[in-house]
Every structure is written in structure tokens, then in C-alpha cells.
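EI: anyone free to look at a 113-residue chain?
SC: sure, send it
EI:
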Amino acid sequence: MPITFNCPCGKMLRVPDESAGKRAKCPVCHAIAAIPEAEPVFEIVETPPEPVEVPPLIPPKPYGKPRYDDDEDDKTPYGLIQPAPSSSTLDRHGQPRKKDGLPNFNKGRKNYG
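SC: here you go
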């Protein structure tokens, strides 16, 4: 890279790198000027980033208790409580009705069929 410097007359001069430390004659004012040393050129070197150590994955802990695990001494299991049967699912004695398949909507009605 050529060396650039100013002459005492204000003219900017450019000379090759090999001329560093010598003297040169200005083409405008014919004065003799000392050529300065070349400025160091810095090179930017990129290094690859260091690998980041990733910690191993820890499996999540199960939450809560199993569905039918006993809570305390009362021996009641966890889980969903079955709703009380409604009066339409019980017969006249309070027992659950038998399911015989599909309901017969025409039974006892005169408006159908």
C-alpha cells in the first residue's frame, strides 16, 4: 500500500512502500521532503466461537399422585366422583333400570304411528 504524506507546500504526495525513510522531491514546489515510515496495517482475524457446553436434559418429575392412590387413613381413592343417579334412571323401587337396548318411544303413546 503506497505511503501518503503532505509536502511543506501543502501538496499531498504518494510514494511506494519501498521509499520509506528516504527523501523525495516535490513536483510542485521542488522542495525535498523526508518520506515517513509506512503505517502498520492491522489485519482482523476472526476466530470461531468456542463451543458452548449444553447441560443434559433432566426429565420432568411426575406431578400429583396416581389417580387411585389413597390419601390418608380414610381409604377413599382419588378420582372422579360418580354422580348420584337421577330419578329418570331409577325405577319405582329406587333401583337402576335395566337397559334393554334402544328406548321404545311408541310404547304407551297413541299419537305415534
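EI: The chain has a mean pLDDT of 77.
SC: 👍
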